[in-house]
Specification:
Helices cover 29% and strands 26% of the residues. The protein is built from twelve helices and 21 strands.
């Protein structure tokens, strides 16, 4: 690990060059305008402006936030990523020694932005902890706005966020830089490493250091991906001897590692395509032009994670028309590393509509919890749902009940088809239960679902036009 990257220097060697001065007055003015709803076209770097738009209009992060929220429950990182985190932790500890004299903090997160560990100057770490920049807090953009850790998941390469470029005003005295570590198979972020400094800029060399650090870790990920592909090819060769129909082996991302001759022809791939000999390198793999296949592979991988002996099938549209395909997992050390797809076979658990057709119809019910007892609620009984971080409370005709499903986005998925609409980043309302509307002194809109109780549900500026249209005013 010591030879992986050069020593990290985060302070500028130019006298006075690392003064923060809230980035610049132009950026600070732009932030003030944008946070109050105005549009900004200059003074802000494009990647920062794009992040601000996500924070304001998509995630509705409170710009006055000064403390990162606790992270939601366990985030499964997949195959051998504990080894990746061990290496990142070792790198973070070494970097922490480098930045200690310059008042820096090094943080490593998982792919959801949850901090796993921090290192560096003790006084800077204590200051960081005041903002909950500490293990088991969430620094994704969705939770904490523009910052080096969360924003690195949205861009390619390293990202720097200095002073007022942070979406949340409580972090304007920090400068940070982060980079995402990505799975070369799926392209998804599995971790990030971030350098932060309070009250001072970071050296221009920090992004360069981060780039080298990420490249070193991703070399290990690449070697693991090639090793996975070798296991997939071995399993494919065993299966090929017993199969006369189209047979394909896919990686975890749904790309083709191997295919027999009849499958190559069916998929309209050249006879000498890399899949004909086994595409060990991720860059050599091709994506089959089959609608729904990626979704089916994700579904199959989830089932197989719980039961390595599982198999299932789906009806898919291929070049020659609709055809069933049976999926069987390829596993190693209790992890799914690939999937065998036998076209023309229909075995195991059905996917999607086929599975739903076999189920017994049940009336819609939402599950809540009260006094350690499960409560079955009809959607019509629920007036609105309110999020308290990742906990969701349901205001119902039977009182205030804790939702069994965590996260307002997940509750929205369950209730959207029953007339519920998101009206605020923290509120979901049953529009059929809206009885009155009230306007605030500054034009704010509030919904009243029960005139007998003093409950006002705020409607955010982003959602107000749609809610007015749906309610007919």
């Amino acid at each position: 690990m010591a030879g992986l990257v050069t020593p990290l220097e985060i302070a500028s060697k130019t006298p006075g060059a690392d003064a923060l001065t809230t980035t610049s007055r132009d950026v600070e003015r732009a932030w003030e305008a944008f946070a109050t709803g105005d549009e900004v076209t200059s003074a802000v770097r494009p990647e920062i402006l794009a992040s601000w738009y996500r924070c304001r209009d998509k995630y509705e992060v409170d710009p006055a936030l000064d403390v990162a929220p606790p992270a939601p429950g366990h985030h499964d990182q997949g195959l051998d990523n504990d080894v990746i985190f061990t290496k990142l932790g070792g790198l973070g500890a070494l970097a922490g020694q480098d930045v200690e004299l310059d008042g820096g903090v090094v943080a490593v997160t998982d792919g959801a932005g949850r901090i796993l560990g921090t290192w560096g100057d003790p006084s800077a770490r204590r200051r960081a902890e005041l903002s909950n920049m500490a293990p088991w807090s969430s620094w994704s953009e969705q939770c904490t706005g523009t910052n080096g850790m969360g924003t690195s998941f949205e861009v390619t390469g390293p990202v720097t966020v200095t002073g007022a470029e942070h979406w949340c005003e409580g972090f304007h005295q920090w400068a940070c830089a982060g980079i995402a570590i990505r799975d070369v198979v799926t392209g998804s972020a599995i971790a990030s490493i971030n350098i932060s400094r309070w009250g001072a800029r970071l050296s221009d060399q920090v992004p360069v250091w981060l780039q080298k650090a990420a490249a070193g870790i991703e070399q290990d990920i690449h070697r693991r991906a090639v090793g996975e592909a070798e296991l997939v090819v071995t399993a494919f060769k065993r299966e090929r001897t017993d199969s006369s129909g189209p047979l394909v082996a896919l990686d975890r991302g749904g790309q083709i590692i191997a295919a027999n001759d009849v499958a190559l022809s069916m998929l309209r791939l050249p006879a000498d395509a890399p899949a004909s000999r086994g595409a060990l390198e991720p860059g050599e793999r091709s994506s089959p032009e089959i609608p729904e296949l990626a979704d089916v592979v994700r579904w199959a991988s989830g089932r197989a994670t719980r039961n390595p002996q599982w198999s299932g099938y789906a009806q898919l549209a291929v070049a020659e028309g609709a055809m069933p395909v049976t999926l069987r997992p390829i596993t190693a050390a209790n992890h799914v590393v690939g999937m065998l797809c036998a076209f023309g076979l229909q075995e195991g658990e059905p996917y999607g509509r086929a599975a739903e057709g076999a189920a017994v119809p049940m009336p819609p019910r939402i599950i809540g919890i009260r006094n350690d007892r499960l409560v079955l609620l009809a959607p019509s009984e629920i007036r609105y749902a309110e999020a308290d971080r990742n906990t969701v409370w349901l205001s119902t005709d039977r009182g205030r009940i804790l939702a069994a499903t965590r996260g307002l986005d997940h509750v929205e998925e369950d209730l959207a088809r029953h007339g519920f609409r998101r009206v605020h980043r923290r509120f979901l309302v049953n529009l059929r239960r809206v009885a009155e509307l009230e306007r605030g002194t500054k034009g704010e809109l509030f919904l009243i679902t029960d005139p007998r109780v003093p409950e006002l549900v705020p409607v955010s500026r982003r959602h107000a036009p749609e809610i007015r249209r749906l309610l007919g005013f």
